[in-house]
């Protein structure tokens, strides 16, 4: 069961991982390319270097994600990668697609 | 808070209004303009007009009548001035409203020799009497168990799913935990999270109903060739960082907290008992909110990411956001600023306590920004073609 009702955000965090199964993190502020970010999470995370600027609330990959791999946020599938996504890259509609609908 | 309560208007059925509106309800497109004239002559009255009404058939007709009756019987409505052009329809509605215990006066165009000015005169005089009577009523303490809240999100961004919706979820748990009721809708935004909702269903039948409701709308989109991307999530959601319907849904369902789901309601359908309910309904806020209000919700909690000014006309709608940029910009739109949680300056539990106090204050009469600025409307859903 996803329980994101007890997420605690630390004041110093610049990015957030919602669940230990997640392969993406959320930017808590606008982050420039090249930023070294250590997202706060349930599990300890290694430092990620951002490959491109990440806007407020947008997602970036915590590790390399293969084409076709499930993208996980809240510990749940939010779709599949439509191409290989490198750690630190922006994850959005250009490389992530829903598996629902059509 | 051991015994949270608010000051409300006691109703015949044991419920309590958080407002005491005179509702001017025009149930036919023909009488809309006259009803507007009537409402303008009665400052403070709430006007709801149906742009259609004749030639409705089958499920559409049933939904239309259920929604109109439900709006009139909402606990926030102290009295109803019913205006229309079709005597049998007005009789049916007036009888249902009377049976509920709400004072109602009907004014029919057919009884005014088809003269809208004559109708206006009659309706203004009747409405003035009703309004004066309402002003004599006083608020009394009411328990949280008499509260029914509706849960909505609109113009969401990822901060909604991380902070604002889980915050609403905590309020939902508090209201339901005290014996009150809550409803969430927007069926398309269960898509990708239906397994989580089904797990919380009170019975296997409710779990099946949740899955079936999602499947039906997913198939509807497919059969019409609708690509969900750009529709839901919409362009504003996407710009703000939401990529797929699954991502949006997983954030959206957090509004429903952790209580068991007692049942799946149809649009504008009132629950038979207290508890948490899912309403199978369109996701667009104007239709969605009216579905909740017609089901009896007196108060709405509405999260937004980047901002959304729309509110219900009849139920105070508490707007909140956790987006640190939007909360700076929209000071006369957002009733609660949850950005401190997003910034890590406040815990979700502390914010939930503050928000519950605000909810009780607004339930007791303090105005929301939407009420102050007059952003409210009611929009009843349609299903199909009319004859």
Strand line-up in the sheet with most strands of chain B: 10-11-9-8-12-14-15
The helix tally of chain B amounts to 14
Tell me the overall shape of chain B. Answer: globular
Number of strands of chain B: 16
Poorly predicted residue ranges of chain B: none
Question: Which keywords apply here?
Answer:
heterodimer, A: 102 residues, mainly beta, four-stranded antiparallel beta sheet, three-stranded antiparallel beta sheet, 26% strand, disordered N terminus, B: 387 residues, alpha/beta, four-stranded parallel beta sheet, 14 helices, 18% strand, globular
Short account of what is shown:
The complex is a heterodimer of chains A (102) and B (387). In chain A, 0% of the residues lie in helices and 26% in strands.
Q: Can you give a write-up of this model?
A:
- The complex is a heterodimer of chains A (102) and B (387).
- Chain A has strands spanning 15-16, 24-27, 36-37, 48-49, 59-61, 70-73, 76-81, 90-91, 96-97.
- Chain A has a four-stranded antiparallel β-sheet, with no helix packed on it.
- Chain A has 102 residues and is mainly beta.
- Chain B is α/β, with parallel strands linked by helices and 387 residues long.
- Chain B is built from 14 helices and 16 strands.
- In chain B, helix 2 packs across helix 3 (87-100), helix 2 packs across helix 10 (285-295) and helix 5 packs parallel to helix 9 (245-252).
- The radius of gyration of chain B is 20 Å and the shape is globular.
- The model of chain B has no long low-confidence stretch (mean pLDDT 96).
- Chain A binds chain B through residues 1-13, 16, 18, 26, 28-29, 55-59, 73-74, 76-79, 91-93, 96-102, and chain B through 157-159, 161-163, 166, 169-170, 191-193, 196, 199, 218, 221-222, 225-229, 238, 240-241, 243-247, 250-251, 254, 257-258, 305, 323-325, 341-345, 347-348.
């Amino acid at each position: 069961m996803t329980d994101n009702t007890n997420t605690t955000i630390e004041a110093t965090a610049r990015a957030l991982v919602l669940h230990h199964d997640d392969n993406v993190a959320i930017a808590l502020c606008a982050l420039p390319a090249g930023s070294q970010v250590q997202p706060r999470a349930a599990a300890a995370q290694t430092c990620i270097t951002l490959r491109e600027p990440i806007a407020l609330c947008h997602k970036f990959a915590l590790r390399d994600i293969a084409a076709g791999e499930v993208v996980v946020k809240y510990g749940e599938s939010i779709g599949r990668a439509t191409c290989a996504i490198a750690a630190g890259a922006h994850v959005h509609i250009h490389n992530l697609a829903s598996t629902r609908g059509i | 808070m051991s015994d949270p309560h608010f000051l409300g208007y006691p109703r015949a059925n044991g419920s309590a209004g958080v407002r005491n509106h005179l509702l001017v309800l025009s149930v036919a497109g023909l009488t809309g303009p006259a009803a507007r004239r009537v409402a303008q002559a009665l400052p403070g009255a709430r006007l709801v007009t149906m742009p259609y009404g004749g030639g409705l058939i089958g499920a559409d007709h049933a939904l239309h009548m259920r929604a109109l009756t439900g709006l009139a019987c909402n606990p926030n409505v102290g009295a109803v001035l019913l205006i229309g052009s079709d005597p049998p329809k007005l009789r049916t509605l007036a009888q249902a409203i009377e049976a509920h215990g709400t004072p109602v006066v009907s004014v029919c165009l057919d009884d005014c020799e088809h003269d809208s000015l004559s109708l206006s005169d009659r309706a203004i005089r009747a409405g003035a009497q009703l309004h004066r009577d309402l002003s004599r009523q006083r608020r009394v303490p009411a328990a949280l168990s008499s509260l029914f809240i509706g849960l909505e999100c609109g113009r969401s961004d990822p901060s909604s799913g991380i902070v604002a919706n889980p915050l609403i979820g905590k309020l939902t748990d508090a209201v339901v935990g005290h014996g009150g009721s809550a409803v969430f809708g927007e069926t398309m935004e269960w898509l990708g999270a239906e397994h989580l909702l089904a797990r919380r269903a009170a019975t296997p039948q409710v779990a099946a109903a949740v899955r079936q409701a999602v499947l039906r709308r997913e198939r509807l989109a497919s059969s019409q060739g609708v690509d969900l991307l750009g529709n839901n999530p919409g362009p504003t959601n996407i710009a703000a960082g939401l990529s797929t319907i699954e991502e949006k849904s997983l954030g959206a369902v957090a509004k429903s907290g952790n209580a068991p789901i007692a049942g799946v309601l149809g649009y504008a359908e009132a629950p038979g008992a207290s508890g948490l309910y899912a309403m199978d309904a369109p996701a667009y806020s104007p239709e969605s909110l009216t579905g909740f209000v017609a089901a009896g919700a007196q108060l709405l909690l509405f999260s937004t990411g980047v901002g959304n000014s729309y509110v219900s006309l009849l139920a105070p709608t508490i707007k909140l956001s956790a987006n640190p940029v939007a909360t700076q910009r929209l000071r006369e739109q957002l009733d609660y600023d949850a950005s401190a949680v997003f910034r890590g300056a406040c815990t979700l539990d502390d914010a939930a306590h503050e928000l519950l106090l605000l909810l009780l204050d607004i339930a007791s009469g303090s105005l929301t920004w939407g009420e102050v600025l007059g952003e409210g409307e009611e929009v009843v859903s349609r299903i199909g073609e009319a004859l």
